[in-house]
Structure formats: structure tokens, C-alpha cells
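Researcher: Re-running this chain for the archive, since the previous output was lost when a drive failed. Same request as before.
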Amino acid sequence: MKFRMLFVAALLAMCSLAFAQGSSVALSENTFALTNNCDGSGGCIPNASTLVSIYVDMPPANVAVPPCTVGPRGAEDVLAPLESVDGQPTSWNFNQFLNEDNGFGLCGGWFLFDSWVTSGGAPIPSGPYYMEISGSGTVWTSDTRSFFGGPTEWDAVNWCCRTTSTPCNPTQLVTVPAPAPQAVCIDVCAVPGLPPSTTRIIIPGCPPNQPPHVIILPGCDHLTTLCDRECVAGLVDPMGPVPLALWTYVGGAWVLDVTAVESGCVCVEWLGCEPPPCTPSPDYTIAAGNSDPAHAIGWPRHDCLEACVDQTTVVHICDTFEGEVLDPEKPPYVHVSDGCLTDGCTNTCEPGGAHIVSVVYNTITGCWDVTIMGHANGCYCFSLDGFLSADLLSFDVIPLDNSMKIEFATASETNMDAFEIVRSIRGHEESTTLARIDAEAAAGQGHEYSYVDASALNGTTYTYRLIAVEVSGDRRELGVVEGTPSYSAAVITEYALHQNFPNPFNPTTQITFDLVNDNSVSLKVFNIKGQEVGTVVNGTMAAGRHTVTFDAGILTSGLYFYTVKVGNEFTATKKMMLVK
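Model: Regenerated C-alpha cells:
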């Protein structure tokens, strides 16, 4: 008791000298030190690495506050400048605690009330008080306050200590590596009475016009497969999909700061880069003419346009002469190609892709309206090569065995002379004009045409272009198709059994036969003695060319025969040699 009296007397003497005009409350204890941690470690509070928030606890009337607890939080007020209690302004000063180096052997200190309402010199409210220690989660609480030394000097005693949370070590900075998807688990801290932690996330893998697509989830287990760590789930702001507006692009990387809401861990998932912002080219009008040969102006024309996925651009093609409209029987020949370094366009830009949805004659405006839809963001070349005298209805190729059948039809023809079929091999620039077919439709009417390319080879993919040749000599490309002839695509006109391949063989070979119609089929294999050694087919099969496999793995080397029988209509036998 004598020690405590000396300790407090020294504190109050210093307080009286320094703060003669205010009410002071001394913080002291004669049995243990007021330290940063409840176990007496961490040094006296506050030290160079901690801050102390001092609160005064004002429980409501008729509410008992148990010893060593904190009263209802709604009745508490932080003792800080410019705050008020019951409408009265308050301010406070807090001096460094004394410690062992001052000769007392224990930790203590005081704080001074300025301009507080007092009752007989006692500060109002009178306590109890509690202190929160930054970072450690330690709270010191005094449940009593007693008079000592003078009318403005009060002693807060009977301190007890409790821990509100475990120490928290937040992640301050993390860089998410490429490529996506990637995820990192970060720790965040939100301790009552302390500033929440902030974590800076840096993602260098996305260009300036494509912010990262990031989702932040509570916890680092079971909610996601990218993060895999057991920990208490925390919360941050923002949570969930991160809005694009919260990102900043600094020093070649995207930066995001997240603030803790609840302590724990969160998983930051980077799913890739957002697509760049895209604005398609606006609708516009091309001035051109086709109603009078003297007015055939405004084409050929090539425009570089911007495509955006699933967004459209409408090009209006209208006559340039007052009082005239385009001929509805002569549609424009238009096409698009990826990028703008092709088909007469010379712009350098990121290639995109688009396709023509419709070419419609507008009876109200007298214009042709071309609707184009993007399927890949970037630029593309739109070309108007003129107006067609032939309105193409269809253009197809049918693969055959070492040949291709070409079929096309027009909806209407005007001033047409002929059609040319031009062939090239896919991937090669060289082309050959296979045929010139005279136009046969009456003016304004359509017609169907066909041609067989008998020089095509199985397994080679060919590109066929259909060219319209007008009476004037003008040439227009109407369409492009591709096809690959195949042995199995033959048109069957008679029954046949083909030589097996390979021959000789070991141990498997393929046998091909042709059926004119649906029929029952038997295909058997015999040895040189006429003994049956295998049945390959036995059942009903559809008309067409069929190829089956025979496996002679259990047979010995030698000459064998295979016989096909089709109903009561066809029978044939051929030889084959097995060499092991």
C-alpha cells in the first residue's frame, strides 16, 4: 500500500504541475503492470510500436456492469478532441506511462480532462474506463474510480485484462502471376478499434484496355478449387466480382486495393482479362448507281469497318441521282473479309471477323440495305464490287468418286451471257477455268444449272468459284464453295465386288462391294481347299458402297478366296494373298 501511495503521489504531482487547470485520472496498479499483453509481456503501454484507444464507459441508468467487463457499446464515447458527451465538448491528453526505468518498477500513467463538466471536481462521466491495445487484441478495464490527492485528481484502479482476438498478420502486397486462371489466398485483419488492413493486389498479365476479371470469395477452401488452405473465412471490400471501375493501371500492371471487413482469409481468383471495349462501326450510306449504265458509279468500293461480337452495322446502298432508285432486280455484289489488309482495304489494325446477315431491297427508300454482324472483335473489310445481273439462289457441290458435281440456281437474270466455273486447290493461288456455261433464263427469270468436274481426285479439297459474265463483258463473282471427292461417295449403278486392299496383306485387309439397292448380303472367306474359314458379313445392308475389314490373325500364310452373294441377284469371287 505504501508503494502504491508513493507511485500515485508522484504521478499526481507531475499531473498537477503539468495540468493545473484540468481534471486528471491516474492509471495505476500496485500488484501488476499495465502491459501490452495480458501475460505481462510486450512492455508498458503505450510503447513505441502501439497506440492506445481510451474509452469511458457510461452504462444506462439502472444497468449493472459486472466487474472487469465493458458496458453496452452504444453508451460509450471515445475520449478524443471535438467529441462530446451529453452535448458538452470534450478533449483529452494522454501522457506516456512510467515504467521500470523511472524507478517505480511498475507501469502506470494518467490522462487529463479539459473542459469537461464536473461535479465537485469529478469528471463527468466518472468511469469506468477501458483501453484497447493496437495489434494484440488486448483490452484493459478498470471497474472502479476513487478520489485521491485533491478535488480534481482521481485514481482509476482495479484494472483487469482480457484478449478480444488473436494477433492478426495481414497480407500487405501480392502479385498474381500469369497465365490465368490463377488464385492467391490472402489474410486480412479487421480488429475493433483499429484501422482495417488494406491489401494491394497487382496483376501484370492484362493489357491497358483489358482489366482483369477477378472474383473474391470468403475463405480459401471448399468454395473454390484454385485456393486450397484451411483458415477462418474473412470478408473484404469489395467482395465477389470486382467492378471494372475499382481497378487502376499503374506501371504496366493492374492494381486493386481491398479493405478488410472481417478478419480471416479470402481467395482472389483471376479468371483472365476482360475483353477490350468495343464499338461497332455506325450505320452509313454508300452513294452508288445501277439503274442506268451511264450512272454505274460509286463502285468498286472497299471500307475498313470495326466489328463487335453479336453487334450489327447496316450499310445503305442508294442511287446518287435525284429522283432515281436502284434496280430491285440487280442486287449489289458485296462481301466481307477478316482484317483490313485484303480485298482493297489497306488499314493496319487488329483483325476481327464479321459476316453478312442479309441483303434486302428497301421498297420505301429505294436502297439496298446490307446488314453485317460481327463474330470477332476487330476490323474487317467490306467490299462493294458492283451490282449483279444474276441474283444467285443457290451454289453447291456434291462429292463423288474421283469427281465433283456442281449445281447452282439463279432467282433472276438480266443481260446475262454466261457463267464460268473456276477451280483451285485449297491453299493454292493457281486456278483453272473448268467450264463456261451459257445463260439460259429469260429476262427477269431464274434457271437451274449443273456441271460435273470429272478431273477431281479423291482426297483433295477443291475451291470452286462461280463467275457471272454479263453481255457487256463485266464479270462478277457470285459465290464460293468447297468440296472433297471420295471413293465412298461413288454413285452406284450396278453390283460390284472390288479387289481387297492391301493385297498381299498381314493380318488385316479391306474388302469393298457395291449394292444397287437394299438387300441381304453374305461375304465369306475360303481357303484353297474350298473350306470356309471366316464370315465377314451376313445380313441386310443399305444401297451404296460398303467397305468392311477382314482379320486373318488366326490363319496361316497362303492363297484365299472371298465371295459376296447379294440376294438372288449377284454373286462374285476374288483372290487374296495372306503373307506372314
